[in-house]
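LAB NOTEBOOK - FOLDING QUEUE
OPERATOR: T.R.
BATCH SIZE: 2
PURPOSE: Compare the predicted structure-token outputs for two unrelated chains run back to back under identical settings.
PRIORITY: normal
REVIEWER: second-year student, initials M.K.

ITEM 1
FIELD SEQUENCE / FIELD STRUCTURE:
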Amino acid sequence: MTSAAALGVPEQFNAATHFVDRHLKEGRGAKVAIECLETRVTFAELFERVNRVGSALRSRFGVEPGDRVALLILDGPAFAYSFFGAIKIGAVPIPTNTLWKAADYRYLLNDSGARILIVSAELLPELERIPRNDLPALRHVIVIGGPATERWSAFDRLLEEGSAELTAAPTARDAPAFWLYSSGSTGSPKGCVHLQHDMVICAELFGKGILGITAADRVFSVAKLFFAYGLGNALYFPLAVGATSILWPGPPQPAHIYRTIEQHRPTLFFSVPTGYGMLLAQEGSFDLSSIRLAVSAGEALPPALYERFKQRFGIDIIDGIGSTEALHMFISNRVGAIRPGSSGQIVSGYEARILDDQRKDVPAGEIGNLWIKGDSTCQCYWNQPEKTRTTIEDGWLRTGDKYTRDEDGFFWYAGRSDDMLKVGGLWVSPVEVENALIEHPSVQECGVVGREDRDALTKPAAYVVLRAGVAGTPELVVELQQFVRTKLAEYKRPRWVEFVSELPKTATGKIQRFKLRT
């Protein structure tokens, strides 16, 4: 395992100085760091605005080292200013899923104890559904792209009032830097506490080691910045080497993605299997000739999607597996060593084992539980010591994935060891979808499992037992899907709804989801 110390990260280390400040010393100030629509931000401007946000958070809002700052921000330069501005003063930013609903935000804000929330104006309506007295820890809300009101402060004022000079807090390399919330087998979000050095590990081992990223690259990630995968792809990977990040704040619709590629000409492209499937479904002629390499993660990439993309555009996709707990990819295919359908080989600097339920190594070709070890693994789950103890043991992370490994060291995904679904690269709890469906007056009970669509990508499928006297019609299917859409994020909506007379259950009344999957 490659440690932060082995990579030369000093004991006193603030991630903002490494990823932002040093570019001025290296003479890169005039180069463009971020492109977003028609906006261009140079490294010098990024440095100044990070300082202004950080200093304003401290002087105007009283943010102190260790304070949590939730970031509910669409992809754009303000995310970078806020993320590194908070880190630079020793505060802890928490990138937050922009697709969630009010109940999710209430949980995260209360669980984290965030004192500050920085939010894009477009996302305010969902936040406003939460009564302010339901958020006792939250002191200030700062809105990007909106004016100040009695309830909100304006982000623009941070940029106006903050100082262009800011000395970084003297944090340790093993001090908390930021949190990312991850779902697990129970479906309840868990705050993964990541340290100051973790981004350096991922940038060195995967960004440079696998992607070969350099200052000449231009990167575009369909996966958003709140997602651990997207945070690396579009923020700290390019900042690690002085490359340019291309950000798109809108939804990942194929027309927008193709337009962004053709206008901004990225050399590295990142998406999830669902995204590649959507691109391939879009008819027409598109110019992707600037892309030297495409990357996939979030869920296993079906071989058919790899082959179709390669045939249509002449571009290789390297698939791999990472996690929020490990921050980014720890197993991956790579240029010159791609096996479609495989997650690839261990990323140099990480370790992996496939164990049976008695913690013994399984032979090549046999299915077991994947454990990995690397210095980017989160320190713990916030406020969940028992879950931390059962997931992270002596530096080894239990991924919850079933895998096999062949004689050549390639890893092959065999499914989850629990009932969680991964849809579009994001975890979905079947219990959460079931609970939403049961709120509908026509539903007596239901079970939700994963089902593969025509591209072999997993989507939620619901088996519903209706209340007496209710007929299962095509119109009711659409109504139930729309009902879930009003309660949960779009990607959690069941793509199929089937009406059944009863659900398979254990003697104690628990739904046997594995029987629904057969």
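ITEM 2
FIELD SEQUENCE / FIELD STRUCTURE:
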Amino acid sequence: MKMPWINRETSWIAFNNRVLFEATDPFNPPLERLKFLAIVSSNLEEFFMIRVAVLKRQLKREDFRDPSGENAKTILSSIIKEVKSMLKNQYHTFYKLCEELRKNGITILTKSEDILPHYEKLKEFFDDTLFPLLTPLSVSQTHPFPTLHSGKLYMLIELSPPPDHILTEKPSLSFIEIPVVVGRFYEVQNSVFVPIEMIIKMFLPKIYPGYTIQHCGFLRITRDADYEHQIDGAFDIVSSVEKNIKHFHKREAVKLEITEGISPPTIKTFCDHHNLSEDLVFSLPSILNLKDLMQIYETCDRPDSKLKPLEPVLPRILTQKRNLFSLIRQKEILLFHPYQSYDPVLWFLESAATDPDVIAIKQTLYRTSNDSRIIFWLTKAAENGKYVSVVDELTARFDEQRNIHWARKLQDAGAHVTYGIAQLKTHAKALLIVRREREGIRRYVHLATGNYNETTARLYSDFSFFTTNEEICSEVNQMFNLLTGFSLAPTWKKLAIAPFNLRQRFLSLIRREIQNAKAGLKAHIRAKMNSLSDETIIRALYEASQAGVRIELIVRGICCLIPGIKGISDNITVKSIVGRYLEHSRIYFFYNNGIEEYYLSSADWMMRNLDRRIELLFPIEEPSLKAMLDTILTYQLKDTANSWILKSNGKYEALGTRDSKHHDSFSEIYTHLQQLSEKNT
């Protein structure tokens, strides 16, 4: 019997459809719905760059099957059909939302006839700003087909040269890259936005004087971004990453988006040139790349059309002083961002950089923000003569260039920068500070479920944990020795580190619940994560369900497990929460016959996290902090306003009770943490 299994790609599409639902839900103000439309497009772009690229390569493997037995061809055909359906719904939603936004005083003009009344102002903007940035790229005998960059927006123009054209070459096909460096949307008047490609289209005769324009449309190409860095020597990682970035525009095409106005023969020519099958061509009815709608969301100062922001809570104990060392010595601190402020993480590093008693700072970096205070204080610490060691994950997808920039800045300041272990991405989030004190050397540790990134800390829900627990500090130190010196620790007791013992730790925790259930004892697992797709873990969960273990899962995105199947998974429930914040934290709870255990982690239950990355699992043992985690999980499991339930048929069903009796975990958790902060002295 085949294991019950939802294909990973199918599950991801279901997740993105849940995000799309947020763009249709009148519970969300109109600009919030516009934001979700943008997120759908951003998610879909990355899906093609990584997952579809992988599937295209797997087409060449006749032996490839997913755990349900499907081959790559069947999977790819299925998801193309589902993506086309999703895009149809997305653009239908976009049109309806444009109408609603207009009623709220916000207008997005997408038709040529609608922008004509603004001709004079648009002409001025075109002449002064856009025209100097435009470079027509025509195809001819001496001008080969241009290399189009992944994700960029292009205008494709089919031309007829004038009869009196004096040049030998008479191009019939030309491209213009749309210069979104000036912003994708031009605000022609207050809260009235025009896509800049529509402005360029209006004034095309100025770019091609004398030519007859036969057809004109827009296109975007998406290229394969799933590549491995070839490291031939100890110092090749930076050059390898830079080489891949430099040659990204030459990688294989995995998707083409087009608008109306491009003739079928030209589309075929384009596909032939890029070795792209026409089933990966998506013809869209309106403007391309809706993720650029985020510009309108961010620049529109219309609080009435957005959710009221939740001001991050700062626990009272942390308002007394910014230097956290004495506070952490007294008690461990657990924060849940963005409900609670991320400032203490920055204060912690600032204190370390400026405190004369701090000797050393060690930190992992995966994704950082553009204007990173984390980098600022690490640089300042190195300049102040402290030993600073940073493990910088250069291969963090789509952040490679930024990470190289920060690595060089840190090195210039005197920090010691390493890049982890070959073939293993360093995804663990850890900060170790070594301080000279009256009693001797003391170590302070910050561990997290999310990146050291002040920007995403305002958008993603993640935990921060501060401790001086000697066992945890010692094992974190051992982890850094592993990352910088390849020194394997003899044992890991408090922590579990992938790929060394994290998979085994999770399986042993699940099996302990199985043994307790078989012994007639109460057995219970609660787990919250981004994705669940590891085959071995899923088999263990099915076994636990059959043994009588109660399993409650909160899985935001991909979930390959099917709950509620009689005799297999009828003791398992799965819900997905999509709403105000991106649910990013990982919490793992095991009842353990009443001696309850809580863990936080950087890892999901995915093969890549357990086998191909450096990941970290750490326990939360202080009773009040365990109670905080229990309350947060309970609110989320009770949530009805933002929740989807995965049914035994593999489909998600919205609870959809956004009424006076609904449970909104976002607001309930925020209220709880406000109250907790007042009590926390």
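REVIEWER COMMENT (ITEM 2): Residues 74 and 489 are 45 Å apart (CA to CA).
FOLLOW-UP: none requested
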